[in-house]
Amino acid sequence: MKTPTGYSHIPFSRFCAVALIGAVAGILAGMFGVGGGMVIVPALTAVMGMTQRRAAATSLAAIIVTSAAGALSYGLAGEVCLPAMLCVSCGAICGTQIGTWLLRILPERILPWIFCAFACCIIVAEQFHVSVRESRIEISFVSVLLMIGIGIVSGTFAGLVGVGGGGIIVPGLELLAGAGDLLARGTSLLVMIPTSLSGTAANLRHRVADLRTGLVIGVTATLTTPCGVKMAQWITPRTGSYLFSLFLIAMIVSTLLKGKRKAGKNSRL
Predict the structure, then answer these.
(1) Chain-centroid distance, C-alpha 142
(2) Separation of alpha carbons 242 and 58, rounded Å
(3) HSE-CB for 4 with a 13 A CA cutoff
(4) 263: pLDDT confidence band, cut at 50, 70 and 90?
(5) Rounded Cα distance, 241 and 8, in Å
């Protein structure tokens, strides 16, 4: 039940399910440098019965905690770039405001399709790029502009789709800034902290997000994120790319099936 403060009561059975969502999101955050929104959003619509709009806003709140835990783990391993983080964050904070505005005005029925289109774009980008491990980011005027652009695009999708934007930041930093795969993931998670804070503040002002559910997911994710980071270090960059693509395909299928079932129910009413 939603309350005026943006919280909702969570029965114990659903609390356990929400905690499980957080645990899975934490592993994904650590492995792929994403906030976990790709699993949080469809899971919240299925488990909590949230609309796509409310699930996206709640997911963004959870990503604040999830990304902080992941960034800390990568930072301890020396796999973050602060100058790159500042450049991408500047663009991402602006982009998030655009995304949260679009989230409020776009029709509910097209949000799942935007979610799927976003995932498809990332899958295609992954197949045209071979990840490397030992590569650093060279800071120049051109690279700064490119990283700000990456931030604007990722922030817009973060606010609109409820993901942290890592699916854009990670391949963007690898393709356009020359970052290694682990450095790109660590920097991506660091960027997500101000990005998700900015978007969540806007969502809470408009009473869209369920903050309590988001915090449960985020706190649970902190327990499993270090495990995901270790897994990312164990597997090869190419294997990680394939696993990420398979995960995105699963999320697309899940989202489309749910949309089909919902359309079938509406047609019978």
Answers:
(1) 26
(2) 28
(3) 0
(4) low
(5) 37
pLDDT at residue number 190: 93
- The count of domains in the chain is 1
Classify residue 3 as left (phi > 0), alpha (psi -120 to 50) or beta: beta
Q: Across the strands, what pairs with 8?
A: 2
- Note down the domain range covering 122: 12-264
119 neighbors 251 (Cβ within 8 angstroms): yes
CA separation for the pair 62, 40 (Å, rounded): 9
Contacts of residue 90, defined as CB under 8 A and 6 or more positions apart, other chains included, come to 148, 151
Residues 137, 179 contacting (CB under 8 angstroms): yes
179 occurs within a structural domain: yes
Please indicate, yes or no, if residue 2 is contained in any of the structural domains.
no
Q: What distance in Å separates the CA atoms of residue 51 and residue 69, rounded to the nearest whole number? A: 27
Average pLDDT value over all residues in the chain: 84
Q: Which structure tokens are listed for 54?
A: 């409310």
Select the highest-mean-pLDDT range: 6-15, 66-75, 79-88.
79-88
- Specify if 269 maps to a domain: no
Please, which residues bridge with residue 2 across strands?
A: 8
Other C-beta atoms lying within 10 Å of the C-beta of residue 219: 16
For residue 68, tell me if it sits in a domain.
Answer: yes
SS3 164: coil
User: What span, in angstroms and rounded, lies between the C-alpha atoms of 136 and 4?
Assistant: 47
Distance of CA 229 to the CA centre of its chain: 16
- Could you tell me if 60 and 154 are in contact, meaning their C-beta atoms sit under 8 angstroms apart? no
SS3 category, 269? coil
